[in-house]
Design goal:
Blueprint: E1 2-6, E2 14-17, E3 31-39, E4 45-55, E5 60-63, E6 74-84, E7 89-92, E8 98-103
Parallel strand pairs: 1-8
Antiparallel strand pairs: 2-5, 3-4, 3-6, 4-5, 6-7, 6-8
């Protein structure tokens, strides 16, 4: 399922849920998160920025856009990288990416 936003918009924020392979929420208490986004077909990150953990027990992360993030329309992939206090790092989703479509606005 894709997340849609118009070019230049900074709302709504994107919410992502960290889940294991069976679709169960991963507890990300005592961790930090980063949001990564790159254009389809590119290995260069357009966004690599801290994300907010808003419900650690249920693995819920929010990224609040800044205007430069959405200044170029097109299809993108995104993921959340979680760093745990014990040094472990896990990226969600770990079997794919989430899709973001930045659409042109009319004016």
């Amino acid at each position: 399922m894709a997340f849609y936003i118009k070019r230049g918009d900074t709302s709504p924020s994107i919410l992502m849920k960290c889940e294991d392979g069976q679709g169960n929420a991963v507890d990300i208490s005592d961790a930090s998160a980063r949001f990564h986004m790159s254009r389809l077909g590119s290995s260069v990150a357009k966004v690599d920025a801290p994300a907010s953990i808003i419900d650690a027990a249920n693995g819920l992360v929010r990224y609040d856009w800044v205007s430069d993030d959405t200044d170029t329309s097109g299809p993108y992939w995104c993921e959340v990288e979680v760093s745990f206090l014990n040094g472990d790092v896990e990226t969600f989703p770990n079997n794919s990416y989430e899709r973001i479509d930045i659409k042109d606005d009319l004016a």
